[in-house]
Amino acid sequence: MYVKRIVLSLFFVLLIFSIIYFFIPQNEKIIPKKINLDNINLYQENSTFIQNDIWTLTIEKINLINVPIKDSVEEDILENYIGHFPISSYYNGNVCLAAHNSGFLINYFKDLNTLEYNDEIKYNYYGNIKVYKVTEKYIVDEEELNVLAVDFKDKMTLITCITGSPSKRLCIEAISKE
Predict the structure, then answer these.
(1) What is the mean pLDDT of residues 52-69?
(2) Residue 71 gets which letter from DSSP?
(3) What is the mean pLDDT of the chain?
(4) Which pLDDT does position 153 carry in this prediction?
(5) Rounded to the nearest 5 degrees, what angle is found at the Cα of 105, between the Cα atoms of 100 and 107?
(6) Where are the beta strands (DSSP E) in the chain?
(7) How many angstroms separate the CA atoms of 55 and 98, rounded?
(8) Domains in the chain, number
(9) In Å, how far are 37, 51, 56, 88, 129 from 42, measured between CA atoms?
(10) Which band of pLDDT confidence, cut at 50, 70 and 90, is reported for residue 45?
(11) Among 62, 71, 124, 166, who pairs with 111 as Cys (CB 3.0-4.6 Å)?
(12) Which of 28, 62, 93 is nearest to 82 (CA)?
């Protein structure tokens, strides 16, 4: 009888851990299953290596062509690049990017509000290209971080401030065509 209880207890413990492991999203970044590292273009110039357009965003409708992305949304990054939220996915899952829309020397997302349903977004991550179609456009408060949540759908979330409403953020969601 005692052995039967131990076996049943172990079974339930394993069942609970299995459910947690397989069905509850982990806080880790979702990384691509296969990254083609052969497409990384490194050039040697004056003994330093330069990464050439290996992480970019293209939205032809708003004249963004191969705009470089950097991994951070700190001010010094957003002043020159599109920023990637490090807590979001890099390739599979919810890729979250941010940029300024006004008030700075570089305002990559100044026309983000003009995007409409089905507009195309091209994302190049180390030579691995995904094409997304816009599916949603909405406004959130700056404290609403659920837009950065892990998602198992291949989607992209673009985020920028709203001119005249500093506590609000415009979000554009797009789903991968793959």
Answers:
(1) 90
(2) S
(3) 79
(4) 87
(5) 30
(6) 42-45, 48-51, 55-59, 64-70, 82-84, 94-98, 120-125, 128-141, 155-162, 165-176
(7) 14
(8) 1
(9) 11, 5, 15, 26, 18
(10) very low
(11) 62
(12) 62
Q: Are 69 and 56 in contact (CB under 8 A)?
A: yes
Q: What is the CATH number of the domain that holds 71?
A: 2.40.260.10
Provide the strand spans (E) within 12-98. Answer: 42-45, 48-51, 55-59, 64-70, 82-84, 94-98
Six-digit token string for 54: 């290996």
Distance between CA atoms of 55 and 67, rounded to whole angstroms? 8
Q: How far is CA 94 from CA 47, 87, 127, in A?
A: 36, 10, 19
In angstroms, how far is the first alpha carbon of the chain from the final one? 54
| pLDDT mean over 2-6 | 54
Q: Is residue 135 within 8 Å of 47, Cβ to Cβ?
A: no
Cβ atoms 103, 110 nearer than 8 A: no
The pLDDT, as a whole number, for residue 177 is 86
Both tokens assigned to 107? 């305002």
What's the average model confidence in pLDDT over 112-139? 95
Cα(133)–Cα(120) distance, integer angstroms: 5
Lookup: tokens for 125: 């991550």
Q: Which residue has the higher pLDDT, 99 or 42?
A: 99
Name the residue range of residue 107's domain: 2-176
162: number of Cβ within 10 Å? 16
